[in-house]
Design a protein that fits this description.
Blueprint lengths: L15 H10 L5 H5 L5 E4 L15 E14 L7 E8 L4 E7 L13 E6 L1 E4 L2 E5 L2 E5 L4 H4 L3 E4 L8 H15 L9 H6 L5 H9 L4 H32 L10 H8 L7 H14 L6 E6 L5 H14 L3 E5 L3 H14 L5 E4 L5 H12 L5 E4 L13 E6 L7 H6 L8 E6 L5 H7 L4 E5 L10 E5 L4 H13 L3 E5 L14 H10 L7 E4 L5 H12 L5 E4 L12 E7 L6 H8 L10 E5 L5 H12 L3 H12 L1 H5 L18 H17 L9 H10 L3 H6 L2
Parallel strand pairs: 4-7, 10-15, 10-16, 11-13, 11-14, 12-13, 14-15, 17-22, 18-20, 18-21, 19-20, 21-22
Antiparallel strand pairs: 1-9, 2-3, 2-5, 3-4, 5-8, 6-7
Amino acid sequence: MKSTLQSPIQYLKGIGPKRADKFSKLGINSIEDLLYYFPRRYEDRTNFVLIKGLKEGQVQTIKAEIIAGGQRNSWRRRSFSITEAFVKDDSARISCVWFNRPYLKNYLKPGVKLILHGKPELRQNGLQMNNPEFEIISDEDEPLSAGRIVPVYSLPEGFSQRYFRRLIKQSLDSHVSQIIDCLAYDIRQRNNLLNLAQSLLNIHFPVDLKIQKQAYERLAFEEFFLFQIPLVLRKFKRKEKKGIVHKVKGDLLDDFLAHMPFVLTKSQLKVVDEIKKDMSGQAAMQRLLQGDVGSGKTIVALIAAAVAWQGGYQTAFMVPTEILARQHFEKIGSLMKEAKAGLLVSSLDKKEKQKIHRALKEGQIDILIGTHALLEEDVQFKNLGLVVIDEQHKFGVGQRALLPQKGINPDCLIMTATPIPRTLAITIYGDLDISIIDELPPGRQPVKTMYFTKKQRLKAYELVEAELKQGSQAYIVYPVIEESFALDMDGAKEMYQQLSAGVFKEFKLGLIHGRLKQQEQDEIMFKFKNKELDALVSTTVLEVGIDNPNATCMVVEEAHRFGLSQLHQLRGRVGRGEKQSFCMLVSDAQGQEAMARIQAMVQYSDGFKIAEEDLKIRGPGEFFGSRQHGLTELKIGNPLVQMQLLKRSREEAIKLLEHDERLEQRQNLALKEKLLQRFPEYEKLVMVG
């Protein structure tokens, strides 16, 4: 039976079921998956450097033969092995050393020819390469491994580069005639893109770097294009559905706006206008509201809730934590006194929950604030008109879709304090309209952020002490509850004891973490808010949901253990009043990425800038998270460096779907097949309407 691109990988010559399992761990299950497993880098082996011409500190590639070698244990640690090979070419010889890889002695024997890629360092006896990447070659490997630009793949132990290259080449040679391009000719022509077969051949075995770049661009465009089509189609379908036409003028709303205890910023007013326009329109609102920590997103959401309330509709307000739910419940209760608010969280007992369920179903609750508990089957609204989801990144895509199903096309407002650059947001959240609050309320000052090593920790504590003596409050945050010897980290519980008895013995400290019962957490938070406690020792339970304008300083211990957006969220717990506030990061950070996060925090206070830095450091897949987006599916496209390509792919997706929404025209059938293959849920979306 002739194999096709969809044939299981195990049927390729020399693989079989056992090796197929290893391939599966790389995400390679079919021959097509293999062809879409791209190199992580390339080595230009058209001209190797002679050993004599090697330069210290520069990454270079040589071709040499082993003349001698051996293995020994380190004199410091007997269990630590050192493998050494002396290699030569026609010009000179050099020593290559690998640490703690004892199995290499089975491969690195005299007479073996190698290609070595690494950075020579100067030692007493001359240059030495430490832990160079290497590849054993034979004469039959020469066409793929030397004299050309050679692909290098991320491979598990047990797979050699030369074996993998041969497999890719064999698969390309056998199946290139079966490759059907999913991009129509006119799209390729408009965007100056190679066809798919050319691209796959040249991404793996490029003739030169110019065509490799063209292949890379074509394959990245394809990924972005496939990613955009479901988003654009979802937006089209949404506009076809009739939503609730809310009245955006009325006494209830006017009264609410008139009695607000503060003036809205220009940015908030602009967003309110955008929301009113959506809510008074025919289509159901699907809006993403981005705004930095403390920028006033909640009050904007309450204005939307007031619009729904004056028309007799209910609002569901879902947040990720009980602390945040209770805080919103109190805030809404104080600002919207005429509306009936309800609170639904997991810690309520059965009777209280049943009471809420009954009142909600009978329409006696206007605004229901809660956590994931809102998604339970027993939660039934009488007349749901608005869904607000706060801190949307804390919920999976599936979870976010469940709540609106409890009404008939209610309006949806999704909020995030983890902003991303607008141009990127438009293309990533392509099915949503986007609003941005980009200014802080009047009187707010940016939080001053400082970095201290562990030896300098006492200086940070002195600053905290000075703030406490002036009547302000503080947070001291740890990444873990218990002390961790394995990670060499202090824990919140242990340090609470030490700080209470030591540095801060004059002050009243509280301890809060996720293992405490909800009632205990609430009691501690209540005491802190009422100024019965001077400082709160905490874990990341603080990350969302504590609003205390009197808290002016925060110490984040082991700061390198936190992600950048998490650090920014934590910092947002201070600086919520008009006093100058401080955030002190304590860390003996090791590694480039950890230091980059800390430096970004010290340098920037703007959440959008922080988001850009986070994207640069972590890359799009990690930044957005697998629960959130298909961005983790991107194998080759990078929105950060290919923004124009991403925008072009979106424009092409819009143009295509405007003319052939169901992808039924002949030139789009291959595209439809590819979409159904890659995104099984796409079929439902295509068939709607």
